[in-house]
């Protein structure tokens, strides 16, 4: 189902085409008038710019969600961690050191893991 904003956009675009068609007819019927020709050219140029700008500006919305998992991977900096560590202990430090060692010893391990679990 279309939302009201999209319906208004389609009606507005249709109105631009109808208005341009009507004014083109008026311009052809009064071809001796420079003012009508100038106004018609200005309207057509503004309509073209509106459509082009609308293509660039009107994009779909993007949402972000936090999904809890047992492990998280950061493909930008090649890091594999748990999403939450216990409050007490050195587990977080030990796992970060293990992650650094894995990436220096075998850099392809991260790529193999990301392809195995189809991370995008």
Could you explain the architecture of this structure?
There is one protein chain. This protein is mainly α and 120 residues long. It has 2 domains: 54 residues; 46 residues, no CATH class. Helix content is 62%, strand content 7%. It has 4 helices and 2 strands, in the order H-H-E-E-H-H. Strands 1-2 form a two-stranded antiparallel ribbon. A hairpin with a 4-residue loop joins strand 1 and strand 2. The longest helix is centred in the N-terminal third of the chain and has 26 residues. The radius of gyration is 30 Å and the shape is rod-shaped. The two termini are 30 Å apart. The mean pLDDT is 76.
Provide key terms for this protein.
rod-shaped; 120 residues; 62% helix; mainly alpha; 2 domains; two-stranded antiparallel ribbon
Give the topology, please.
Elements lengths: L3 H26 L4 H24 L13 E4 L4 E4 L8 H15 L2 H9 L4
Antiparallel strand pairs: 1-2
């Amino acid at each position: 189902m279309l939302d009201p904003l999209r319906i208004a956009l389609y009606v507005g675009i249709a109105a631009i085409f109808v208005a341009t068609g009507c004014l083109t007819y008026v311009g052809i019927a009064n071809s001796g008038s420079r003012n009508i020709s100038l106004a018609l050219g200005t309207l057509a140029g503004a309509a073209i710019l509106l459509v082009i700008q609308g293509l660039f500006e009107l994009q779909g919305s993007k949402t972000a969600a936090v999904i809890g998992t047992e492990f998280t991977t950061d493909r930008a900096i090649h890091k594999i961690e748990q999403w939450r560590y216990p409050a007490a202990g050195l587990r977080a430090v030990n796992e970060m050191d293990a992650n650094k060692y894995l990436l220096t010893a075998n850099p392809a391990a991260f790529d193999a893991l990301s392809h195995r679990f189809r991370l995008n």
